Structures are given as structure tokens and as C-alpha cells.
Amino acid sequence: MKSYNVGMIGYKFMGKAHSHAYRDLHMFFPQTTVPKMKLICGRDESGVATAAEQFGWAAHVTDWRELVTHPDIDIVDINAPSDAHKEIAIAAAKAGKHLFCEKPLALTLADAREMLEAAEAAGVKHMVGFNYRFAPAVQLAKKLVAEGRLGQIYHFRAWFLQDWIVDPTFPLVWRLQKEIAGSGSHGDLGAHLIDLAHFLIGEMTEVIGMSETFVKERPLPTSMTGLSAKGSADAPRGAVTVDDATLFMARFANGALGSFEATRFAPGHRCTNSFEINGSKGSVKFDFERMNELQVYFTDDAEDVQGFRRVLATDPSHAYMDAWWPPGHTIGYEHTFLHEVVELMNAVSEDRQPVPNFVDGVKCQEVLEAVDQSIAQRRWVSISEV
Amino acid sequence: MKSYNVGMIGYKFMGKAHSHAYRDLHMFFPQTTVPKMKLICGRDESGVATAAEQFGWAAHVTDWRELVTHPDIDIVDINAPSDAHKEIAIAAAKAGKHLFCEKPLALTLADAREMLEAAEAAGVKHMVGFNYRFAPAVQLAKKLVAEGRLGQIYHFRAWFLQDWIVDPTFPLVWRLQKEIAGSGSHGDLGAHLIDLAHFLIGEMTEVIGMSETFVKERPLPTSMTGLSAKGSADAPRGAVTVDDATLFMARFANGALGSFEATRFAPGHRCTNSFEINGSKGSVKFDFERMNELQVYFTDDAEDVQGFRRVLATDPSHAYMDAWWPPGHTIGYEHTFLHEVVELMNAVSEDRQPVPNFVDGVKCQEVLEAVDQSIAQRRWVSISEV
Amino acid sequence: MKSYNVGMIGYKFMGKAHSHAYRDLHMFFPQTTVPKMKLICGRDESGVATAAEQFGWAAHVTDWRELVTHPDIDIVDINAPSDAHKEIAIAAAKAGKHLFCEKPLALTLADAREMLEAAEAAGVKHMVGFNYRFAPAVQLAKKLVAEGRLGQIYHFRAWFLQDWIVDPTFPLVWRLQKEIAGSGSHGDLGAHLIDLAHFLIGEMTEVIGMSETFVKERPLPTSMTGLSAKGSADAPRGAVTVDDATLFMARFANGALGSFEATRFAPGHRCTNSFEINGSKGSVKFDFERMNELQVYFTDDAEDVQGFRRVLATDPSHAYMDAWWPPGHTIGYEHTFLHEVVELMNAVSEDRQPVPNFVDGVKCQEVLEAVDQSIAQRRWVSISEV
Amino acid sequence: MKSYNVGMIGYKFMGKAHSHAYRDLHMFFPQTTVPKMKLICGRDESGVATAAEQFGWAAHVTDWRELVTHPDIDIVDINAPSDAHKEIAIAAAKAGKHLFCEKPLALTLADAREMLEAAEAAGVKHMVGFNYRFAPAVQLAKKLVAEGRLGQIYHFRAWFLQDWIVDPTFPLVWRLQKEIAGSGSHGDLGAHLIDLAHFLIGEMTEVIGMSETFVKERPLPTSMTGLSAKGSADAPRGAVTVDDATLFMARFANGALGSFEATRFAPGHRCTNSFEINGSKGSVKFDFERMNELQVYFTDDAEDVQGFRRVLATDPSHAYMDAWWPPGHTIGYEHTFLHEVVELMNAVSEDRQPVPNFVDGVKCQEVLEAVDQSIAQRRWVSISEV
Known about the structure:
386 residues; alpha/beta; nine-stranded mixed β-sheet; 32% helix; globular; nucleotide binding (chains A, B, C, D); Gfo/Idh/MocA family oxidoreductase (chains A, B, C, D); oxidoreductase (chains A, B, C, D)
């Protein structure tokens, strides 16, 4: 069986999720080309060494340049903080490596476009990490839309609600700093919603947004890991330079109306990545906190038994689920990454671009940027303008 | 338009619910024969006078004998405490009045049978107040079963969970005294489940139960109304002489298995009157706390969109709902009584027995008694034994 | 006990709901001043006569002018189609009658302001029919906000989703004609959301909206009642002149962000009038299809048991619920009107303005109009502009 | 870091789940003693070789005797079909190996006791695979009970509902044959409920059950994997020799009442492993199909905001969750096995018995057997009798 060697940059939250996907892929998807966990890179020698040992990487380095030019590496997986994506991706592309980059592709649309151009110029495969597409319930939504079972689409409404920074003493982690994160809820959470909209409904033509930073200063952090961090209320404080919440409305090319809301200030919502689609023949609803479920409604159900069906997308008929457990035995967050890597490996071995790829990453960034402009200029902005 | 004169005995919880049904019937069901609110009876002159004025009864008396023999009265509605049902019903039947009696029909099976015999001997109409049958969502469940849309029935499981006496200082109201109430959760809550089982699945052949009184003594009450009451922790105490919880298992004549649980010791459940039916072609689930909804599952739904549908039984296609509001505009507890009275008035005016009637009341009492025997004798008891 | 004589104009959907409220008020709220159902008005003699008889009105007329000047009438209840509100209200005010007008107050902001001025000039009481405020679960939300139990408010998101006109052959009823209805989903459904926002969060400062009519022509109707109607696919067709869906974003004076969506094109949603509030100390969620429930979250719950609580607002501690049934015995749509009329009667007898009154009606109309302008002009519009 | 060598027998459904747990343990629980995937055994050489390669076992054998006596092996993991457990476990114990055996421990109570005796005689560690204990939401339920936060326990009701054999043409797989599976829904599903009852509430004193085989003959299978299988309607047929559904009632030593239901004939329920506990201070509800959630109710919540809380047990305060993803990022079925293996490895390295162990396995078997006797003899059976 064919295999490809992977080199990965970053080993925190996303690094762990990706590592796990590589580690388990062959066990659950034995027909898929195997990713070999060759090399992992992190700036902190001790940290990356520990990660390599725990996650199962064959070796580690601390300089990403060494990794992206390493002759053994076929695929470069980039999940460093967002501000580092561009430089790494371009260097890796130039070195002829296939690219798998976490979202958002870059801090700006211009950067994202440069990355796409570099990848295309180098003729390498490129994938972007919109993992939520790969939840089987989301795949089912896509299937229903694609097969016309929801009819003409009228509405897409989506909200990604979290609550991890509601406490004003939560520290100023990198995700709250514009120079590293690019934006706040908008690029972190909204980007996922935008990609789901593109995946499920299609392209948007114009947008208008609004945005707010509710807590404008926060204590500097003393330690952090994943989304959690520690600080102290009497620590020195710094300015929050990203949005706490961003909302926008959109028109889609197919005539549908979109509403989007991303916030980190919704107590009780740990990770409510949720959307609803209404079409002339039916509707679907999804909430990532119940990621194995899709609510489905059809207008042509018998008159006396019409209602949203709670479909547990764990049957063999649902995407990817024949690789897992019997029906009703649910999967979790991390599984979306395995499915993502299935697509990556299949695409590389079949010599085609994976989906979603940098084109999708750029399209997402276009909307992010159009929304930003619409906020700054307080007007509707066409996607074609940006 | 034809009308009948009603005389009602009792004016508390059920008295209010019945009065409201009579009061509003013509407004929402103008095709139905009109019940005239002629006479109401209660032992407390001042209490019943106030109730008559508030509810809209033309007159009141304090002696039920006067009511049941009053020449103007066509229908006698009995919602006095359970220990008074028998004597009143028999007297009313002898006086040639139609009977509408709250459940449970009587304190014992023997009494219930006497009541049925008296009604049959007198040739009057007789109805028993199993109001939950008349929730549109329950009617939908019945329709699905009757039309074979759930196939062969395998399981009926039902539980009626409340929590109003969990606090051990809640006082010793009449519903906790065997000589007045007959039994506790069993006759109060379990009786409803048994009737729903009869309505939806059919008759049982044998049962075995278990029962418990968790709080064996309580302070005597100082006041009470509906299900709420006041007492004080240091009041004199008396023995609780009814069951706090009764469970039983049953076999149905059609081969289905039944499980039943009635308790007043389930914190968080204000009024969870709930059942599920599993058949070879589908399932339904009902919970009275969401009484406008029926969860419905069909095995022959398309493979990728199988799931319980949340049917909001508020469309015109659902029983009784064309009398109310547009779809999605839900109804409440009290509406079940209006629907019940629709059946009562239709039956009386069409010269047929209403359903459910005393035969159903007796059948319910047979199961209650068989369960009691099974508990006392620690063995399975056939319904045909009692 | 004091009483007031009511004269009502209109006898269809809202007329029935109001009639029922008057009819039952004294039974359930015996301490409240009694509304006497004196006179009902409708243009169709036979229709209004039937309604009067069914609903319990003492008399009927076909000319509303006769009603609003009738010396016996104290309160004029206006639930004629929206285009008739203004003329009737002003005439009634001039005749010194108290006013109870269905929402939206008028077809335009200017008309609504005239109505308010007329009422104030006449010194009469005036109420507007935003009945959803009076659901006990909504009252609980208000209480939590008012008592500071949700902290500083960050987000209000609301959507009113229906599906009764998704079928393109559904006929062109009056609610789809601008000259009668004023607007479509915006004034019909959005108006309720706006009023709830005012009630729960406070005033908005600026808005921007978008709107669409998905089905632009429909067959002319042959008959209609409530929200249902009959037509035929091959009937002559007319233009739909109102919006099928309107969305908007808003800023509130207190710094909160708002998102609103009203549509009649959401299959599976019969009457999803839903909102969520996120504050620094907690969140609440409401959905009218489960109107007895409020989902409540507090950030200061113990760390290991944080989660949205499903509060069944049927306990005696919840607004209006001690008038009804024991805990867990739910109420329905029509009960909101009884509570509304409690407020009306209390206000009139206490010689104070009811809440919500025409000031609230005008404020709602201001937002409706600002949104309309923002759509026409494709820009943010300040409420103070309109 | 210390490590132990594992040898595993069986490589199908449970074999895969266990393999995955060993494979990933170190990645997510780096502080835990490492299980080395040394040797896997299966009767089919080609099948087991493939499994070894996919899952990551160092070597494979086809004779379990070779495995249990292999000098390199420290821990023997037994997930062969239930009829093989006893012989393997006893041989492994005699060889001084620690034991990790899938449930049910054996086909009969006598066999289970022999296994426990053998393990105790050999002085080895022994664990039984009741994996549902290890769902974080279940751990939370246990914590709430153990800390007295639910008060005195009154009720435990549990049901394990599946629907994979509702179709009467589903073939006669080994799980439907008494000589291999021991029993049907009772030992497969009911055993989990019994163990959860022991874990959460404590021991039972007496039980009475009922049981049914709804489909008495089925076509012989042509192929099978996991819970799915293929057959053809016109294949030769064989008798189903196990129960399709088994229900029982129980008394617990602490005075609580228990009701249990296990069935494979509940359409719409793929894997509804569900329980509810009611105590004097609160209640909890769990459903495995939403395994990340626990519904929690406290009687001492403020009067106006009482309600079941939907606790998403994915916060760092919840058992095992600091090893996984940020709050709201849910886990799946397979994670229960990782947690189970954490306990196994910790116990072995700390030289203590893991929990649950063969004592728990025997206790579960006692209840299974007591229920069987109660069914056969149609009477209550004391646990102390069996």
C-alpha cells in the first residue's frame, strides 16, 4: 500500500487533533493511503519532543524551515498560529510539498491569495482545515441539498456561539490579539460558518456586518493551553484588539438570504456551531453540540405526521459511518479530522485537489474581508469588490 | 339547537376544569349540543356560591341529593372526592340522569361494578373522565395504531411522574388518605396510564406490581387547594395510608409487553404523563408536559433520514384542532376537558354511550385491583381473576 | 365589583381570541374588574350575528361608527384588518372610549403617531395587543433581566419562523397585500420580535435590514379563515406586494447587539417565535412552540453542573400561573390574551395607562419603518431619524 | 515509564474498540502506564493477521492457549464470544496473567463465580468491561449520588432500547443463539443496566421479570460484522433461542425501587441506553445517544428557575475530559474504552483491583440469573437465593 510522509508544524490544540487523525487513520480506513507521521515541528524543544513522543511522530525539529525542505516529507501540515501560515505555506509549496493548512488560511485576503498562487504555481495539492464539513450529519445536509430534497433554498441562518471569554478576568490570550489571530470571533468562528454556507448553499454576492468588543481590556495571561488559560485579575492588562462578536447578513447567488452570528459572549454555549436551511421542500437544522444529529423536515410528509425528524447520522448509510461503530454509537469532535484526512490522502493519491482546498480558503477570506469592510464603511459590500 | 341541563357536584380542581369546558364549549364547538350550566353543588355554602358566580352556574345547592333528583337536570357531573362517587352515581342513575364521573370511578372494583350496573339498569348514558385521551397528540397516537401504521405492537411503556410531595413536610392532604382517595399514585396517576393503555393497545391479561410509601408520616394540613397545600413542620402528624409510588409489568392480550410506573417522588417532573409504543413498523412517544407534541418514527422512512419526528399536533388534520387556532398555536391542559365534553354531548344527543364510559372505568379498576392483589400476594395476577 | 362595557370590532382570528379572553376572565381572575361583552361589530351581518351568539356578545352592529359612539361602551377593542385601525381608533378616542388595538398599530409610523396623539388628546387609556409579552415564560425572562440575574446584556437574537405560505399555490390572502396589511412577515411577525426586544432589552439606536419576496405572484383566494385559505392553482393570479421574509441587525441603547429574522418560508416551523438573550451572568432561550418553557443558564452555577435549565413556567411562582392549574399542567396560546386583558382591566380600573400601550406601538412602528428605510436605502438608519 | 504487555483474544466489534483504546491511550493519557499491543488472537488466520496490521498489534496467533501462556504477556484481554470467556479466563489466571474480560462475564452465574475464584486464587488483577460507567456524564451522575447531592434515592429506572432486529428477515446471528450468547437482550443490554444500577445506586435485594421472543424463527445468516448482518428471506430458518426483550422490577438494599427494560424491538432507538435517578434532593437523566449530556435537577434551586439542566459533561471539571478537547467539543462511544483502560492500567501499576472487576461481573450475573429464575418460576426471587 502506498503511503506519504507527513511533516507537521504546531502541536497544541489543532496539532493534537491532526496527529490523532494520522495516528488512527489506517485502523479505521484501511483502504486509504497511509500518512506516515514522520516529523513534527515546534519552537519549544522540550514541548515538541514530548508531543512527538506522545502523539507518535518519528522525529521532531524546532525550525519549520528544516521541516518544509526536508527531502523525506511529502505533505506539510500547518497548524501554527494563523500569523505564521503564509510564510510557511509558501516556502513549503516552493519546496514542492503538498499543503494541509488550518483555517483561517491567513490573516488577510491578500495573504490568502498569495498562498493560493504559490500552491498553484508549485503544482502541489492544497487543503484547508474546515473540519466541520466532515461531520456525517453535515454531510447528510449537503447530500439533501445536492439531491434537491430540500428544493429551492430560501434561508441559511447560522450562529457559532461560545462562552469561554465571558469572564472579564479571562486573560488576553493570543486569540484575542489581532496581530496573531487576525480577528476574533469573526475569523475563528465565523470562518467556519462561512465555509459551511459555501459548502451547503453556494457563493454569496453581498454582505453587511456589525461587530463589537464587549470587554476592551484583559489581564495578560500566565499560562494557556487549548482554549483554556490562566491569569489573575490583578495582572497587568492589555487591550483586546479583536472582535468579541460579529454578525452579518448576506445574499447568496442563488437568491437565498443568509444571517450569520459569531460570538464568544453567549453563556451556556460551549460550542454551538449551528445552522438551519429552509428550502421549498424542506428544512434541516444542525448543532455541533449534538453533532451526530441532523433535524430534517420534508413538506411532502403525510399531512398528519409532519415534523422535524431527529436523524442520528450514525447508520452505515451516513458518510464515513461504516468505518466506525454500530448505529447509535456516536462519534465525537476528533472524528471530523479523520474524515478530513481521508479526503486529503485520497486526493493526494488520486492526483486531484482535495476539497476544501485553498480556493475555498480564499473564498472564505473574501467574505471575512468583505464583512470587515462593510463594518468599517457601514454599508453593503459586494464580494466581487474585495 | 338542542341543549341539556347539567348539574355538577364538586367545585375544586376538577370542578373548575369541567366548568370551564361547559362554559366555552359552544364558543369553540358551535355544532355540538349545548350543555347548560344549571346547578352546582358543594358542601360549603359560601364556597359553592362563589364558585357558581365565578364559573357561571345558574344556581347552587349544598345537598347533592337535591341535585341528582332535580327535575331540570339531565346530566349529573360527579367530581367530588373519590369516596363519594358511588353513592352519588347510583342515586343519579336511579333518578334517570346521565352520568359523567371523574376517575377513578370508585375506591374499589366492587363499587365500580355496582355503579356500572346501576347505570345500565337505569338505561342512562355514562362517561368516565379519562381526559388525557382527548389530547390531540394522544388522538394521533391512537389513529396511527388503529390504522396499522405502527404495525404489530410489541411494547407499551408508560410513566406518570410528579414531585409535589417530595418534601417530607408537605402535609397529609386527602389524596394521601386511603379512606378518601382509595390509593395514592396508583389510583391517581396509574389509573390514567392504564386507561391510555386500554385506549391505545387494548386489554391486559396479567400483571405484577410493587409499591412503596417513602414518607410514612406527614404533618396534618392547615389549608389546601388543587394539588397545593400548606402545613407546618411541627404540626401534629398522621400516617400516610396510600402508596407514594406503584410500578407494575403487564402482558397485553395482543402479545405486547407493558411496563407502568406512577410516582409522586420524581423531582423535576411536575406532570410527566408519558408513554411510548413500539411496533413492528414504528414507534410513538408522548409526554404531557409537551402535550401538543407526538414523537413519531416509521421504519419505512428513507434509509438516510430515519428518525423520530416531532409532530406538533396543532394542524387542522389533528383531532379537534380545527376548532382552535392556526397551526403552531398550542393548546393547554384544560382543552382536554372541552374535547371530552364534546364527546359527552355528542353521545347524549346521538343516543349512544360516550367513550370512555363506565365499562372503561371498570376495566381500569380491574387492573388497579389486580395490581393491588399482585402486590399483596407477591405474584402475577390475571385480570380475569379479579 | 366594578365592570366596564366592551365593544369589539372584528370577529375573525383575533376577534375570537379577544372574545375568549373577555368571556373567561372572571372565572380565572375573579379579583379583576369585569369586562362586559356588550357589542360586537362586523361588516357581514350574518357573520357577526353568528359570532356574537357563539362568543357571547350581548349585541352586534355592522357599522363600527355606531359602536365607537355608543353611549354604553367604555372600551373599544379594535381587531379589524390593519388598514382600518387608524380611523376607528381616532374616532373612538374622540368619543372618549378607552382603546385596545391589535398590532401593528397602523400601516405607517405617521398613522401610528396620529393614533397616539388622538388617544393622548382624548385622555383615554390605550393598549396595543402585543400578547406574547404575557406568556408566563416571557414574563420570567423579563423578571430575570430586570432583577439583573443575567447581568449586562450582550446579545438579543430573535426569529419568528412560519411556513403557511411556502406552497406557491397558496392564495393571495389579505395578509399578502400591502394596501391592507402594510407589510408581510415584517409587520406581522417582526413586529412581535421588536416589541419583545423593547420589553426585554430596551430601545434600539440603529438598524439595517434586508428583505425578499420569494413567490411574487399567487392565485386569488376563493375562501379564507384564520391563517388558512383555499385557492386553486389555475385561478387568476395577482402580485404579492409584501415581504415574505425580512431580516435586520440592530444596536441597542445599552450596547447589546440584536439580530432579527421574520419569515413565512421556513418549512417545519408552524409558529417558531423564538428569542435568546445572552448576558454577562447568564442566558435565556424561548420558543413559542413550547411556550410554557424557558431555558435558563447562569454562569455562577456550580462548575460541574452548569447547563441550560428547562424551566416549566407553570409553578405558582410564575406570572399569572396561580390562576390556572397545578404545576406541569400547561397553558396555550389563548391564555396570553387573558393575561393581556387582566392588564387592560387593571389599568383602566386603576386609572393608569396599560402596558404595552400606544407609545409602545409607536416605538415598534418606528423600528419597522427604520428597517424599511434601511432596506430601501441600503444603509444603517437611526431610530431617531424616522 | 512502566509498561505492560497485552495479549487480546477476539478482533471484531469489541476487539476493535479495545485495540483503539490501547493504541491511543498514551497520546491522551501520557501519565498512565502504557499498554503494549503485543499479541492478538483469532481463529481465522487471515482475519486476525489483517486486524493485527490495521489495529497495530505486534504479532498474532490463532490459538488462544498459546497467547494466555505466552511468557511476554502481562494482561490478557478477552473479548471472544461469551461462551468462550470462562475457559480462557481460567487458563489465563492459572498462567498468572491479569484479566480484562468483556461482559457478560460468562453464560451462567456458576461459570462467572468459577472465573472469579480462579482469578482470586491466582492473585491476579481482574477487570470486567462495563464501559458505560466510563462516560463522563455517567461519572458525573455517580459523583452527584456519592456526594449526596441527590439526597436519598427513591427511584432508578433504566431502559436499553435497540432496533437492529425488528425486521423479521434479519438473520439468526450468534447473538440470537443461547448456546453462544447465553441470553439475548437480557445479557447483552440488560447487563449494562444492571451494572449501572450497581454502580450508581447499590445492590438489589429482589427482582421479578418478564421476557418475550417476538420473532421465533429467522433465516440463517450468510455474513455478519459488528451488529449488522446479511441474510435472505428465503434462506433456511432456525429457532431464535434467546429473549428479544426482558423487563424486570427490583428493590434495592437502600430502599429504592428499580425498573429495567431491555429490548431489541424498539424502532427508532439505535442505542438508547438510558436511566433516570430520582432522589429527595434531585434527579438525573442520561441517554447514551446523547452521551455527552446529563440532565440534572435540584430541588433547592431558586423557586422561579427550577428545571432540568442539560449539563454538557465536556468541561475540565468532568471526569477524563481534561485529556480531550475544549468544552463543548464532544467525545464518542469509543472514548469510554480509553477511560476504562486508564482504570485498568492504573490499577495494575498501583497493585490494586480495578473497578469494575470480576466481583462486579459476578454481581451482575447474579441479578441476570435471579431475573431468569423469576421469569421461569413466575415469582419474586431474592438475589441471596441464587
